From TrEMBL:
Residues 85-100 have a biased composition (Acidic residues). Keywords: ATP-binding, Nucleotide-binding. It comes from the Archaea. Transmembrane segments: none annotated. It comes from Haloferax chudinovii. Residues 55-66 have a biased composition (Basic and acidic residues). This is ATP-binding protein.
Length: 659
């Protein structure tokens, strides 16, 4: 009979506790079998038949579990002799689960639960057995390669991990549980279990005249094919469809850890296409940066915007000219003008590393803070050294943008009345007419009576419009500064950064007026066939808007619909007119859907709100990561650029950031 040994072997050094436990287990077993007492060895583990089956499995795998009770070879007392006799007739090789000799990779393709690739992801069955020595370093999301016999490669990633029983045994018993509870936490026999990785096929990699290319997965790997970790930068970039050149966003990562390769540098840089080789540059197909407070979205946005201002980056216009982009950034927290200054926290080694990776860094000298002038407020501008230039909104802009003077929401009857009043005013006063003159114009009782009697504007509607026009914050229009309409060359400069700070303004309505007035000026000239400013029309523009949810939200008012209509048109025609929207928000769910649908590239940092996470419409495997990401971690969903990926941003901002 096989010697099962003393159970004290499993219970540490306290043999008395083991004996007591054995008596307890005997009593429990007897009670559970109608009072028929059985010895502990009878109760655990399996019958002779089960042992024989387990032994046969080990023969096929070249393993030996004959003398090791922990390997599942111990038997029920009643059938122990038969099982042992069967085992003695067979020759076993030593079971060795650790990597030995010339083993490569992390494991091999398994067929125990099927092997299938399909156009329907739910019908794909692709699993790998992971060898013992590799199990600790295998993580969800890791990228792997599987060779085909003809030197093509299957590029895939891990989407599931599980332990399964190696031998036929029932470990859901009282004795097994008590043994496990007595063992030290680190005393775990890996060889007793199979460690399986579920794989998601991404692409097939193949060589075409010396170039590595990708295609959709159209073939199944061979059983027992070696599964290896992807460590070649070219293979990884090709497999994920990441461009070799373009605007730097961050480094490819899995679970917050950067993907490492055998190359120098060992990291994988992620870039957005910015040339016309494969379609329009993605900057003109619009970008959304979404992240909660403290997620690092301003830090990340500065790093990205600085890349658009790199000297070597330019875009082809319709007339064949190559022109650098101008960046116009609305700044509600007075942070982006700091991009003029170098980051004092950047050391020489970090700067050299950025240079080696082709990451633009350092303060941008051509930075201007275009400061809104409002009565009763002043802009300190003490946290940066950028040039400051004040401007005002001339009331004449209301001729083409009547919603600027709506004050608060107007209905469908009141908005046409406002347009009628503005047309009458500018006909009498011309473009020199001011907001104060318009208020005086509305105080004329004869005008009210005339419009009422002619049926053009009902007197009640006239009064409602007048109240709303007076609701515009005082001190916004016609201040002692240069009109924004005369500052097109300061507003838009090829290769220049213009920051419009609004932190110092006294009300949210005043901030909205300034942001929308300047945005509308840019959009109208970019989209017009007869622009007021050739400078704006002929320069690629990146229009950045922080806290975009405050300005582009859905609303029932007429003026809100007019604003959304203007930005939707800009988004649709952006690629043709070289106008890119760069929207930054912590509440992406509040951005109007017609604008949101035009965004191609989504950079998502930590978001704690479930509605916000759902609204960005990223793949489920990335969506689940968002609430757990640390500062600077992000997921990028840019279908026209690459597969969905996780990135780690630069830890040191490329320009000054913070106090």
């Amino acid at each position: 009979m096989t010697d099962l040994g003393d159970f004290s072997d499993f219970a540490g050094d306290d043999s008395d506790d083991s004996s007591d436990a054995g008596r307890d287990e005997q009593a429990e077993t007897a009670a559970g079998n109608g009072g028929s007492a059985r010895s502990e060895s009878v109760s655990e583990p399996e019958s002779a038949t089960a042992a024989s089956s387990a032994d046969a499995d080990r023969v096929d795998a070249g393993r030996d579990g004959r003398d090791d009770p922990d390997d599942g070879g111990s038997t029920d007392a009643a059938g122990a002799t038969g099982a042992t006799d069967d085992a003695d007739d067979l020759q076993f090789d030593q079971y060795d689960a650790d990597p030995v000799g010339d083993e490569r990779g992390v494991g091999a393709i398994a067929v125990s639960q099927g092997l299938r690739v399909s156009e329907d992801p739910d019908r794909t069955a692709l699993r790998a057995f992971v060898t013992t020595g590799n199990r600790e370093r295998v993580r969800l999301g890791k990228y792997l390669v599987v060779p085909y016999p003809d030197d093509e490669l299957l590029f895939c990633r891990i989407v599931g991990l599980e332990y399964a029983q190696e031998f036929q045994a029932d470990d859901a018993t009282e004795i097994h549980a008590r043994r496990a509870m007595r063992r030290p936490a680190d005393e775990f026999e890996e060889r007793d279990f199979k460690f399986m990785a579920e794989l998601e096929p991404i692409a097939v990699l193949f060589s075409d005249r010396g170039d590595l290319k990708r295609r959709m997965v159209d073939r199944v790997p061979k059983p027992q094919a070696t599964v290896g970790e992807a460590t070649d930068a070219t293979q990884i970039k090709t497999g994920l469809k990441i461009p070799e050149a373009g605007v730097f966003l961050g480094h490819l990562s899995v679970g917050g850890e950067k993907v490492r390769t055998a190359a120098r540098p060992p990291t994988i840089d992620y870039r957005l296409k910015d040339d016309y080789a494969d379609g329009d540059p993605l900057v003109f197909r619009h970008t959304l940066v979404a992240g909660g407070t403290g997620s690092g979205k301003t830090h990340a946005s500065k790093n990205i915007l600085r890349q658009y201002l790199a000297v070597e980056r330019s875009y082809e216009m319709d007339d064949g000219r190559e022109v650098q982009a101008a960046v116009v950034q609305f700044d509600p927290q007075d942070e982006y003008a700091q991009m003029h200054d170098d980051n004092p926290d950047m050391d020489a080694e970090t700067a050299r590393r950025y240079e080696r990776e082709g990451v633009a860094h350092g303060g941008h000298d051509d930075t201007v803070a275009l400061v809104p002038k409002m009565a009763g407020s002043s802009y300190p501008g003490a946290n940066h050294r950028a040039e400051q230039l004040k401007f005002t909104i001339p009331f004449s802009m209301a001729r083409d943008l009547p919603w600027l003077v709506a004050g608060s929401s107007l209905n469908d009857n009141q908005y046409p009345a406002l347009i009628e009043l503005l047309n009458r005013f500018f006909r009498d006063y011309g473009d020199a007419g001011t907001y104060k003159q318009f208020l005086k114009f509305l105080d004329d009782p004869a005008l009210k009576e005339e419009l009422h009697e002619s049926g053009r504007v009902h007197e009640a509607t006239f009064d409602a419009v007048k109240r709303r026009v007076r609701g515009v914050p005082s001190g916004v229009f016609d201040q002692d500064a240069r009109p924004i309409t005369e500052l097109d060359h300061q507003l838009v400069r090829p290769g220049g950064l213009t920051v419009v700070p609004t932190y110092h303004l006294s009300s949210s309505r005043a901030k909205e007026l300034f942001v929308l007035a300047v945005s509308a000026l840019l959009i109208d000239d970019k989209l017009s066939n007869d622009p007021s400013s050739d400078r704006i029309k002929e320069t690629p523009v990146v229009l950045g808007m922080d806290e975009a949810h405050n300005f582009l939200t859905d609303a029932d008012s007429v003026q809100a619909r007019k604003v959304i209509q203007k930005f939707t048109e800009a988004a649709k025609q952006g690629r043709k007119e070289r106008l890119g929207l760069f929207l930054i928000t912590q509440d992406p769910q509040d951005i109007a859907d017609p604008v949101f649908k035009q965004v191609n590239t989504k950079v998502v940092l930590n978001l704690g709100d479930e509605d916000a996470i759902k609204s960005v419409n990223i793949p489920p495997n990335l969506e689940d990561k968002v609430p757990y990401m640390e500062k600077g971690q992000m997921v990028v969903y840019s279908p026209d650029n690459s597969e969905p990926v996780e990135l780690t941003g630069l830890s040191t901002c490329v320009t000054r950031h913070g106090d």
